[in-house]
Amino acid sequence: MLTHQDVEKLAKLTQLALSDTALAEHLRALNQTTSLFSSIKNIATANSEPLISPLEISQRLRADVVSETNQRDRYQTLAPAVENGLYLVPKVLD
Fold it and tell me: Which InterPro entries has this protein been placed in (predicted)?
């Protein structure tokens, strides 16, 4: 459980100016959230299979086919610097 001092420290770190009323409300909400996480943590999931989706639907997938022609050369004519099919950019890190 978080204390009043914990929430004051969080408010200071995030540069939030909170009134005593707002501080108390945030303390209540944060403690409510952390207790919810604690209850979820205690759920036995050892024999559960992971779900891709909670809904019992199948994904409609489109065929993976090329639908456009390669226009890299055309696009690179607009670039300020290109070499061997790659865009050249200024060095950011040494």
Answer: Asp/Glu-ADT_sf_sub_c, GatC
- Residue 36 is encoded by which pair of tokens? 């919810």
pLDDT of residue 74: 94
Contact 76, 82 (CB under 8 A): yes
- Rounded to two decimals, what is the model's pTM? 0.47
Q: Among residues of the chain, what percentage have pLDDT more than 90?
A: 63
Phi/psi class of residue 85: alpha, beta or left (left: φ > 0; alpha: ψ in -120 to 50)? left
Name the strand (E) or helix (H) holding 83.
Answer: strand 82-83
Helices within 14-49 (DSSP H only)? 20-41
Taking the alpha carbons of 54, 60, 64, 70 in that order, is the dihedral positive or negative? negative
**pLDDT reported for residue 8:** 94
